[in-house]
Specification:
Layout: E1 8-11, E2 17-22, H1 30-33, H2 53-61, E3 71-73, E4 75-80, E5 85-89, E6 92-94, H3 105-113, E7 121-124, E8 137-138, H4 144-161, E9 166-170, H5 174-182, E10 186-196, H6 203-207, H7 212-225, E11 231-236, H8 242-259, H9 267-276, E12 281-288, E13 291-300, E14 304-312, H10 319-335, E15 339-344, E16 355-365, H11 368-393, E17 403-405, E18 411-413
Parallel strand pairs: 7-9, 14-15
Antiparallel strand pairs: 1-2, 2-4, 3-6, 4-5, 5-8, 6-7, 9-16, 10-15, 10-16, 11-12, 12-13, 13-14, 17-18
Helix pairs in contact: 2-9, 7-10, 8-9
Length: about 425
């Protein structure tokens, strides 16, 4: 049943709801998907471009997220007693743990050595995308609390009925996390680095809150990044041509091939998102001697800029920092976006004005012994993540006494 290509219907265990397991985003229409909070710019709860029908369908239709790549769509479609669509969970049956950015390879190895079968597992996330956002999707006009509880219950039932080892909901928003913890999912934390726009009017305005030494270092860094005759272009909307995609894809493949060995995204995918959601994309491209030599792709949400992939065909000091981090801050300030999320990992972002932020995931483990072992590990890991975050927060480049927002949205004095 786990590998069937058709839709399956199961009872959720939550009164009044049933869930269909759909082997493709095509089981939804674009109009149906747009009813879920966070999936369109018209959403009252904020727009996350990675949850748009355009982005998810492009991943599947391009062949990036397919059974062949180890990402078999297994989306949950929650319906009420009248057959009305009320909620969904983007899900994939995984035959490996690649492209997730929340690492469970150790769990898989331990379970396999003990005679268990860890794969396939259910991964509820956006493929290849370490960006927090809704995972329990609720249609407008519905009882959000009840629907989210139904989706949490449905995820557990589907995991059990398909005979899977586990279900993993990664890069969660806080309200989804609380629902899943109440449903018995295990809580895991990790760390990223985000820039918070405190109403700055310009990059120089932002620099004004940094310690003098840090401020001078960043000014020098930005000058030196462009010292070899490099200029920077910010492309969005109709300015992103197929030629620009060709150049960016070369950068992506070169860097991805050297760093990871197997880039996840193909050329077709970039053409698809360029056609379907160009206004939600920012390409930062570096030009030298009449040609592009480096670039970074960002996605634009309702109040956040999300940095994703970078690549280059020429190495220049500090160019990576300029293209990926400083230019993102420039754009966010100009567009009055509240946050720049610069992707997974990278303590080097701290010196460039990005601050430590805790990310969250939730895990349903079906085997009691494995569940106990993981629960014990996660308790210790959460303490370590919290201590590291506190340490890094005390080593930000901001002037002492500056009042800044922390990742919880409350004020903190450095």
């Amino acid at each position: 049943m786990a590998m069937d290509q058709g839709d399956n219907e199961v009872e959720t265990g939550a009164a009044g709801y049933a869930v269909r397991v759909s082997a493709g985003i095509g089981a939804f229409t674009a109009e149906e998907w747009s009813r879920f909070h966070g999936t369109t710019r018209n959403s009252t709860s904020g727009y996350n471009p990675f949850l748009s029908f355009a982005f998810l369908s492009s991943l599947e239709e391009s062949g990036c997220a397919t059974p062949r790549s180890g990402w078999q769509a297994n989306h949950l479609r929650l319906e009420n007693a009248d057959g009305v669509l009320v909620g969904a969970v983007p899900g994939y049956l995984k035959s490996h743990s690649q492209g997730e950015y929340v690492f469970d390879h150790g769990w898989a190895d331990a379970f396999e050595r003990a005679g268990g079968k860890y794969y396939p597992k259910l991964q509820c996330s956006v493929p290849f995308t370490p960006v927090s956002g809704p995972r329990l999707l609720v249609a407008g006009g519905q009882n959000e609390t009840a629907i989210k509880a139904g989706l949490a219950a449905a995820t557990k039932v589907v995991t059990d009925q398909l005979g899977l080892s586990s279900a993993h909901m990664t890069f969660l928003q806080q309200d989804d996390l609380e629902v899943l913890r109440a449903a018995g999912f295990l809580h895991r934390t990790d760390q990223q680095f985000h820039f918070f726009n405190e109403g700055f009017s310009s990059y120089d305005d932002f620099l004004g809150i940094l310690a003098s030494r840090k401020r001078k270092a960043l000014k020098k860094e930005r000058r030196e990044a462009l010292s070899s005759g490099i200029s920077i272009e910010q492309l969005t909307g109709k300015d992103i041509t197929e030629r620009a995609w060709d150049d960016f894809y070369k950068f992506y493949m070169d860097t991805g091939g050297r760093k990871w060995g197997r880039p996840y995204l193909n050329r077709t995918f970039f053409s698809m998102i360029g056609e379907r959601m160009a206004d939600d994309i920012l390409l930062v491209m570096a030009r030298r001697n009449g040609r592009y030599i480096a670039g970074a792709i960002n996605f634009i949400g309702s109040d956040a800029l999300y940095g994703r992939n970078w690549g280059c065909i020429e190495d220049h000091p500090f160019l990576h920092f300029e293209v990926c981090y400083h230019q993102a801050i420039d754009f966010a300030i100009e567009r009055k976006l509240k946050v720049v999320e610069a992707g997974a990992q990278g303590e080097h972002k701290l010196a460039r004005g990005y601050r430590p932020v805790t990310t969250h995931s939730a895990h349903y483990i079906t085997h009691p012994g494995l569940r106990r072992a993981i629960a014990d590990y996660l308790e210790r890991e959460r303490r370590e993540v919290a201590m590291t975050s506190d340490y890094l927060e005390d080593h930000t480049p901001f002037r002492k006494g500056e009042l800044l927002l922390n990742e919880r949205g409350s004020s903190k004095t450095d």
